[in-house]
Inverse folding.
């Protein structure tokens, strides 16, 4: 009996001492930092865009509230000058041909989606959407914050995104990789934009919010 009473008292004291009072100062949580490397990946230094192993995908809520409508573009381009240590020296550009949209349903791609994009026959400018970064900076967690400008549907608007540098891998001749020896670098850029409220898209097929995931691979022969 004495043991049980002592144990109960100790438990109560432990509970009381572990409580946090409203007037107790909260500990400061410092932002985590990441030690960035010094890789440089530049098209101007011999890195070539590898479209075969790259993609530009998008997703939005079908009918604005239903399951995700997803797709990609068959015709697209990307270019990058990337400085891992000093990202303010970096630049990312890309563009897609809207009429090459591919959701896996040809009838939908050639019908309502092309109308949604506002493509005008014979007007090449209306069949293109592009992105160009204006500032790239460390997010101090291993990734990068990206500010840029998107041109779509005859509108230019600022865009905020996240860039993930997958890294650069060297493949020697024994690896079996075609055209080795070479370096292969990978990047993933993600951003969202307001198709209706910012870019003036008039459609009940999609939600206002559209997410873009651009995965780019670049190769440099050694």
């Amino acid at each position: 009996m004495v043991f049980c009473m002592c144990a109960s008292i100790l438990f109560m004291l432990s509970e009381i001492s572990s409580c946090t009072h409203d007037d107790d100062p909260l500990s400061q949580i410092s932002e985590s930092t990441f030690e960035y490397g010094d890789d440089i990946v530049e098209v101007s230094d011999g890195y070539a865009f590898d479209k075969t192993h790259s993609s530009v995908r998008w997703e939005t809520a079908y009918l604005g509230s239903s399951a995700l409508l997803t797709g990609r573009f068959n015709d697209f381009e990307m270019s990058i000058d990337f400085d891992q240590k000093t990202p303010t020296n970096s630049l990312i550009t890309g563009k897609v041909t809207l009429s090459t949209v591919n959701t896996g349903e040809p009838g939908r791609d050639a019908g309502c989606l092309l109308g949604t994009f506002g493509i005008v026959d014979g007007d090449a400018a209306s069949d293109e959407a592009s992105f160009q970064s204006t500032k790239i900076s460390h997010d101090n967690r291993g990734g990068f914050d990206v500010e840029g400008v998107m041109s779509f549907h005859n509108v230019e608007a600022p865009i905020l995104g996240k860039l993930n540098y997958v890294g650069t891998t060297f493949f020697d001749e024994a690896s079996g990789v075609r055209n080795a020896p070479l370096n292969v670098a990978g990047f993933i850029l993600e951003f969202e934009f307001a198709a209706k409220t910012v870019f003036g898209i008039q459609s009940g097929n999609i939600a206002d919010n559209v997410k873009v995931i651009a995965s780019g691979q670049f190769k440099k022969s050694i």
